[in-house]
Amino acid sequence: MKRRLGRDFFVPAAGEKTEEIAKRLLGKYIVRRIGDRKIWGKIVETEVYGGPRDKACHAYGGKVTPRNKLMYAAGGRAYVYLIYGMHWQLNFITQKSGVPECVLVRALEVEGDDPRAASGPGKLCRFLEVDKSFHGEDVVTSKDFWLENRGVEVARREIVSGPRVNIDYAGPHWAKRNWRFYLKNNSAVSRK
DNA sequence: CTCGCGATATTCT
DNA sequence: GAATATCGCGAGA
Predict the structure, then answer these.
(1) DSSP H/E element including A33
(2) Which of A64, A95, A109, A140 has the fewest Cβ atoms nearer than 10 Å?
(3) How far out from the chain centre does Cα A95 lie?
(4) Which residues have Cβ atoms closer than 7 angstroms to strand C?
(5) SS3 of residue A70 by DSSP
(6) A18: how many CB neighbours lie within 10 A of its CB?
(7) In a 3-state reduction of DSSP, which class is residue A91?
(8) CA–C1' span, A192 to B3, in Å?
(9) What's the pLDDT tens digit per position in A9-56?
(10) In the structure, how far is the CA atom of residue A186 from the C1' atom of nucleotide B2, in angstroms?
């Protein structure tokens, strides 16, 4: 069974929180088409960046800059940017237009010689050959980049939550929020 | 295991 | 113009 994820996955009508979307993304597949070639990987680690109140979020304080304005777009778009001058990060925008929330994809489990070839936000982008040209790509309609549900069921108890990476500066209230989710006992998770 | 550094877009002053 | 950033790697201990 293969089913492409549609708009409602990223913009839940029921008002589901972005945390729930981040958990639902675990076990789904990211598929990238390059000419006749296809690359894919299973999502095993995600992290939530939650709006203007979240100090770790680019849209903290409701700030709008040329880079982050895409976070205010409707869910289903890719938010790609460069960090530390050399690593691309891949996020998916969630929620309806005007709500600057997104999910960072931190790690994929891939099939091949090296199961850790996409274990980390930067490595993942290199693996998928995602760069700035995919900033703003709509994964609901794109022919080169999308997400699939391949029928992998992730049990609630297989999902581990914990504090996000690099958020000490955000203060105790945000630092203790368990906004990072990953699959238990999965070797492709970036850090444990 | 911990540490330090890379190389640049974006933001801040 | 200067500081900084959602990281990964290779070196040294």
Answers:
(1) strand A29-34
(2) A64
(3) 13
(4) A 47, 49, 56-58, 83-87, 89, 91, 102, 104, 120-124, 165-166, 169, 190
(5) helix
(6) 24
(7) strand
(8) 19
(9) 999 999 899 999 999 999 999 999 999 999 999 999 999 998 899 888
(10) 24
